[in-house]
Every structure is written in structure tokens, then in C-alpha cells.
Amino acid sequence: MLKKYQNYYDIIHGDKDYAGETESLIKAIKKYSVFQPINILSLGCGTCGHEVILAGRGYNIKGIDYSKIMLGCASRKAKESNVKISFRLGDIRNFSFSGKFDAVISMYNVLCDISGLPDLEKTFKCVRKALKKNGIFIFDCLYGPAILKNKPEKRVKVINFNGRKFIQKRSSKLDIKHSMTDTLFEVFEILGGDKKKITEKKHKVRFWYFSELEYLLHKTGFKIVKTGDSIDFKKDISENNWDMFFVAQKI
Ligand SMILES: C[S@@+](CC[C@H](N)C(=O)[O-])C[C@H]1O[C@@H](n2cnc3c(N)ncnc32)[C@H](O)[C@@H]1O
Question: What is the dihedral of CA 77, 80, 81, 84, to 10 degrees?
Fold first, then answer.
């Protein structure tokens, strides 16, 4: 039997520049927050690639995710890095905390796992409740016009991790009508001359349009402070880049 895809998340994403992204995230937090944020809530924290670094830099981090496996990896990683992060197993579409946070983050397309506007609205409402007045919400997601311009293609990625070799194959179907991609990920480990499938996942994600998010953010009590095509916010959203980033402020 194949192991769940989440068990291999840190291997598959081992080439992601969490350190560089977190530096840019810290700069954005400092630049766009009206006060110095200390308490940060991370939605869909997963294995805490960014959060472990943030915790090491003195931020108090709470992470919420609905995957036990991802939170298990995150907890091991926090222990190894000697940092404290508190975790909540839960759904970002329906959560509440007793205290208020200075900032909420949601990194790496977590909001694309939410497939409909009503659920995204519920999420934004929960974020608003969890934030202090004027607190900021920094998140990213896939940008529809860029997906339609550069459609997902079949891709093979070779991964070398701690002396082991893996291959990830990805093939996607585009559902333009519903603004969704349906992707099959298959991961193989190369052992000697053999290629053995170790995991696979079918993953549907929703890509979003700026106007949808603008409407929902305003409706749920946020103002958009900054948008960008990456976490350094140097360039604005563009149809040439699949990612769009937002800084929104609770008003
Ligand atoms: C692509 S991963 C990103 C993980 C992490 N933020 C990172 O940068 O590596 C998406 C994460 O969001 C979580 N997630 C998706 N939808 C969720 C929901 N409705 N409630 C809680 N967690 C959710 C998944 O379990 C997964 O850990």
C-alpha cells in the first residue's frame, strides 16, 4: 500500500526557498503593519517551513491545519529546531481563538484548497475575528489569468534528498468553467536501477481572480494594502506569474 502524499511533503518541496521567502515575509510584516506584530497565526501551516524560521526570530506562532500528518512533521521540525510553536488541528473555514493576533499569514496556496466563494468568505470572516484592529493578513494564491495564459503542463521533477533520489510526475486537467485545476501527482523513488512508486495524490485547486478577492475582502471588513507577484512585493500581480500575494488590513 502507498503511504500518504503528506508524509513526503518536505522531500517533494525540499527545493522551496523557505529561508528566503521568510526573510521577505518578515520585511513585509514590518513594512505594512501599523504596529510591530509579535503574535502570528498561520492558516494551513502544513509542515511549518516558514513558521519554524519565524519562531526562531522571536515571533509567537500558532499554526492551524487539518492534516494530522502535516502537523506531526511540523511538530518534529519545531523540536529539532528548538523552537516553540503551538498547533491546532482544525479547519481554516471555521475556527476561533480566545485571544487576538497581530497578524495572520497563509502561505503557499492554502486558499486554493478552498473551492468556493462561500467557504472563502467564511475563512476571511474567521481571520477578521482572530485579528486585532488594524492587524494584517498576508496570503498568496494562484492567479487565474496567469494560469489561463500559461496552462499547466505535464512536468517531471527529479529530487535528490539526503542521498536518496526521487521523481515526481505531475499532470493536470484544467476546468476553466469552475476555475479549477485537477492534478495527479505521482512520486517514485529510484532504488538501484528500479523505479518504485511510493505515493500519489489527486489534488483539485481553485485559482482565483483579483476582482473576486477584492470583493470578498471588502465585504468581510478588510482593505487591500498591497498586492504583488511574489512575497517581496516588488512587482504587482501579472498574467505572467501564477502567484498573487496580498497584504490586507482589518478595518
Ligand atoms: C500547499 S500546503 C502549504 C503548507 C505550508 N503553508 C507551506 O508553505 O509549506 C497547503 C496546506 O493547507 C492545509 N489546508 C488546506 N485546506 C485547509 C483547511 N480547510 N483547513 C485547514 N488546513 C487546510 C493542507 O493540509 C496543507 O497543509
Answer: 70
